Each structure stands twice: as structure tokens, then as C-alpha cells.
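Quick illustration for those who missed Monday's session on complexes.
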Amino acid sequence: MKQEAIVIGAGMVGISIAWHLQQKNFQVTVLDRKAPGEETSYGNAGLIQREAIYPHPFPREIKEMLRVLPNTSLDIRFRPKALMHYAKPLWQYFQFSAKQPYDKIVEEWATLIEHATKEHEVMFTASDAEYLVRQKGWLQLHRDQKSLDAIIAKSTKLTAHGVEFKILTPKEIALLEPDLDVSHFVGGIHWLNAWQVTSPGDLTKAYAENFKKLGGIIKETTVTNLHELSDGSWDITTTKEQLKTQNLIIATGPWSHEILKLLGYNFPLFPMRGYHTHYQAAEGKMLNHSIVDEDNGYVLSPQKLGIRLTTGAEFTFIDAPIKDEQLQADIKVARELFPLESPVEKTPWFGHRPCLPDMKPIIDKAPKHQNLWLAFGHAHQGFTLGPATGRLMSEMISGETPYIDPAPFKATRF
Ligand SMILES: Cc1cc2nc3c(=O)[nH]c(=O)nc-3n(C[C@H](O)[C@H](O)[C@H](O)COP(=O)(O)OP(=O)(O)OC[C@H]3O[C@@H](n4cnc5c(N)ncnc54)[C@H](O)[C@@H]3O)c2cc1C
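Prediction with flavin-adenine dinucleotide bound:
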């Protein structure tokens, strides 16, 4: 008899888990209050970051903290009430960002992210979605020589982890991007084996369509309650119906804390907001690659709806109203580089990177329940890591030997 599973969350992480389980002959249903790929997995910058061997640490140098403190920097903003509310996980984040724990985290995190492009390729090939992925790398551009040198200093380690890159002079950047004003930059890095997606939401939807072709089911409904039955199976209350399943997987991204609170868990998950707006490029002008203005923390990516500008981090509450000063400040600076014309949307999109203090996701069986599995907390790289997570989680659930050691992603580590 086929095993059954229900995945809550139809973002890149949940859809990838569902796809892998369905491939393993499970009968899988995905539940989401929206259609697949319409939340965080829609609005991100669309980078499949094979190069991201170093997760984002909390700023620890006094100089760096003083830079961020006035709350006017382009890359990081905060709302003081949210900083107070999330003080405990942020303090843990600060501690995990010290050199010794951070170096270990990098090694553990690398074991997963090294598989990111290969695992996406398996899924986009099966889904006939190659056309959404540009496999020609993206450009990280630096205004400051010191920040460029810091990356170059890490090059031996990056190479050891299979990252391919080329250091660029401003002249070389101009050859790749003739319409960009490169006079602002001292140089850059072309991440050669990282990829860019022209519509992250569409890629998630393409994977979801392929999942349905394999026999998977997707239901648009909100999950309001979860109840473990005496035989270890699960009873799920949604706004539309009552469902039962043997295996339940929580992949609700930044909302995972909220849903797991129903079962008595209190993981130190915190949201890190980002905004985006699309802009039309001036006539005849184009960007060939996604561009990261590294010292200002925003991304310009050529996408289906126009040039998508995504902002850096804002520490705030998940339901806080829009505050678009950071986005407006980024646009002003970005327009000095590239002729962005009018915005496509009236209101900016915003979403939240689901962050955990040690910068790694949880991919594990839940500690206090049977047949409950957790996959969330992929922070800045959840779009990148969905398929690699899906494969790992499906192997754990089906009892196969996992393709990488899952120990660094344990739920009991906090
Ligand atoms: C501005 C920005 C830029 C980013 N850029 C990149 C990038 O370039 N590359 C990269 O790899 N990552 C990037 N990220 C991070 C990435 O987008 C996220 O890590 C990733 O999308 C998380 O995927 P997910 O599937 O865990 O969550 P989501 O995509 O948010 O999916 C979770 C789903 O759960 C559903 N849900 C929640 N609660 C319930 C409920 N009670 N009932 C039913 N459904 C529910 C939601 O509707 C949602 O669809 C960026 C993020 C932001 C904000």
C-alpha cells in the first residue's frame, strides 16, 4: 500500500519535498492558503546561489554596528520594537556569528548548498522548465576595495567547495554589461556556476505542475489546527475540510513558528523582511545578468515583469505595515547605475526570509511527535535550497540513507 503524506506550504521548500516524496511512490497532498509559489518563493531575487558557502552573519565589528545604528543604511534597517521582541534569537544570532561557531556553521551549511544547482537541475529538467533558468552566473559588484579584497581572500575555500568564479575589473564588467555605469565600482566577481531565474514564482509553479503530473494533489486552504492521533497519524483542520495523514510535513517558511506553536514548539525563528518592485528599463537598455550592489545590499535582476529591485534586510514584525524608505533609497542609488524608468507595480511587494540564529535550516523529524517532519528556516537561500532540502527530507521520511549527513540540521539543537 502507498504511504501517504501531507505537506503544509507550497513554497519552493514544500513543493520540492512533495515532488521528491511523490517520486518515491508516496501519495502526497500539499496544502497552502495560496497557489504554489505565491509568497516568499515568489518575491525573492531569483538567484540559485551555488556560491553562497558563507551564510550571512550578524554584524559583530563595532564599526559595522555603528554604521547600521542610525537606521539609514541601504542594506540593513530595523524597527526598534521588533528588535526588542526578537532580542533572544538575535542575541543567539550574534553569538553564532563569532569566528569559532561561524567557521563550523560554514562547513555544515556547505554540505547542503553544494548540491543546490544539481538538485534544481533534476527538477527543472523533469518539469520542462529549463527556459526559466539562466545558467550564466551573476555579478557581485563592489564599490569598496576592502570588501572586494575580503571576498578574494576567501577564494581558496570557495574553490575547495566547487565554486567557480572570475574576478572582474571595471572594464571587464562593462564588457558584460554595456548599459551599466561601472564608474561606481572598483571591481567585482562573476559567480560562474551560480544561476538566475527569470521568475521564481513560475519556477515553483512549474515544479508544482510536474508534481501534479506525477499524481500529487494540491489544495488551496488554510490550516488552522493540527492534532496527533493515538496511532501516530495526524488530523488536520483546514478552513475547508478535515484531513488525515500518516506523515505530516511543515514547510511554512516564515510562518512556521506560528503553526508549530499549536503543537507546543517554540523555535527561535525570526522574519527578515525584504521588498521588491519591478521597473521598465529605458528603451534599448538591458541587463544581461543579475547584479548585486554588494556594499549597498540590493539586487537588480532582469525578470519576466521588468528589472526587479530587491532590498536587503529589515528587522520587523511579519505583519508590520509597509515602510518603503529603504526601497526608495535603493532605487535612487540604482538609478545612478542603470536607467530604471517607471515602476510596474503601484505598491511594493514584501516578504520575509525565515531565519534561525545559527543561519542553518531545520530539516528533521519533530522532537516531540511521531510522523511529524520539519523543513523551514532557510533564510536568505531558501529558493536555492528547496530541491536539495526536498531530496534530503524525502530520504529521511522514506527511511533511505540520506545523501548528506542531516545532523547539522537537527531540530533539537536550540
Ligand atoms: C527580498 C528577498 C530576496 C530573496 N532572494 C533570494 C535569492 O535570490 N535566492 C534564494 O535562494 N533565496 C532568496 N530569498 C529567500 C527565499 O525567498 C526564502 O528562503 C524561500 O522562498 C523560503 O521558501 P519556503 O518554501 O520555506 O517559504 P514560502 O515560499 O514562504 O512558502 C511557505 C508557504 O506556507 C504557506 N502557509 C503558511 N502558513 C500556512 C497555513 N496556516 N495554512 C496554509 N498555508 C500556509 C504560505 O502561504 C506560503 O506559500 C529572498 C527572500 C527575500 C524576502
